[in-house]
Amino acid sequence: MGMADILRLTAVLLAAVLLQSAVMSQFPILGVTADLFLIIVVMVALSRGSMTGAMYGAVVGLLADVVFMEPLGMRVILYVAVGYGLGRFGEEFHPAGVGLLALIVVVASIITQTGYGLFVYITSPEGMFFTMLRLQIIPEALVDGLLAVPVYILLVRTRVVPGPETEVTLFS
Amino acid sequence: MSRDNETKRRFLFAALIVASLVLLTVFLREPASGTLHALRDKGAGSLTPLQSLATRAVKPFRDGYQYVGDLAGAMEENRDLKREMESLRGRVIELDEAKEENDRLKQALDFRNADIFPDGSRFVTARVIGWSPTRWQEWVRIDRGSAQGVKLNSPVVGVSPSLGDSLYGKGLVGKVVAVGENSALVQLIIDAESSVAAVAQGTRAQGIVEGTASGKLVMDYVERDQPVEVKKVVITSGSGQIYPKGIPVGIVESVGEEDVNIYKRIELRAFVDYSALEEVMVIVIESGSVQLEEQMDSVAPNEETGSGSGR
Q1: Which residues are bridge partners to B254 per DSSP?
Q2: ipTM of this complex prediction, to 2 decimal places
Q3: Looking at the whole model, is its pTM more than 0.95?
Q4: For residue B141, what are the β-bridge partners?
């Protein structure tokens, strides 16, 4: 990975911090806020592999913990796992097509939020996991999946992730 | 992929997971005044000017967005409200009478004017500049912090001057759970970890108002033999360490009983629309206040001490 790539990834991360902290939280959809950090970790991991995915997940997770005012390290664990896991998936199967990527984001979002939910379940006095499945986890997974489409197109245009070799299709 | 490369990847993954677990453990074990908490708060605080600016810039879009969302439920709500208004008109007349009587009695007893808030209370008006990212927690970030006198555990109430003398929009919002120099985090009372000692007007039934995962307010620990009527106002009882007595919390929406529960299940409708909070008022209670000390003497254990300092 060259210096230009590192600069691009840094720029994307800074843009995500600005958008997530200043704009996204003001426009909830289905009662939830999309997780832009997760979406960029998924995109970068799928296109650049497990090593970059895990490291990028660590950096993004740390910033997300600061922006979301959460215990430092919590989102780091989740995003490192997502970055590494999807990086391996990308290396093996080379998924392409906007629809498939959006579907992967939905699954990643459900896994991440379930992990987050388990943490809350362990540390909170109230067990509210199943209520949250309906109110938070599934709606946010859908919103993340929807937002993944424009984010992917933007990342391809700015050459942060490589574009498809052929014309963009819904499912490759 | 070479074997060396594979080993390197696995090692890196394991190292990052271990490092983040260590970071998380240290963070959770250190006090709220610890180094990692301070670093996180400073980092988040550095975003305050940006969030403040963005909140103002996108306000017209946010209002428009909210307007469209509200339109959907407006017709049905309008019908219900008209019906409710009719019944409330009658109640207003009754209450006016009661208020006059109450005022007279208060004067007779030489009550202080601001009897809700302890002597020496200061009010800091703040703008909401951020919302919790998930519904696992319910908090808002405000643009006032220690530099403006905001303190940890300060109660926060709503501000809606456009609604005149109505209680709507002016109820209890929550308490400050983290303070930065120019920003603070307010845990809303609809947060599942929030608890507020409260009393229902009329029968004076005492209980604890708690948030739920679904965002509703529930008044718990009210004995089944205690009568509680629908549409009665619930106010803070002042028997905790944090909220002064008399702040409106909500209106009793339903009262239920279950065979397996020794307490009633009372659902409240809050006076504040927490999804549309724009401005709030932080009540800074100076230490040494007579009323506060009186309240501290009657502290009930496990009330109003919901966690949050760690956030």
Answers
A1: B267
A2: 0.86
A3: no
A4: B130, B185
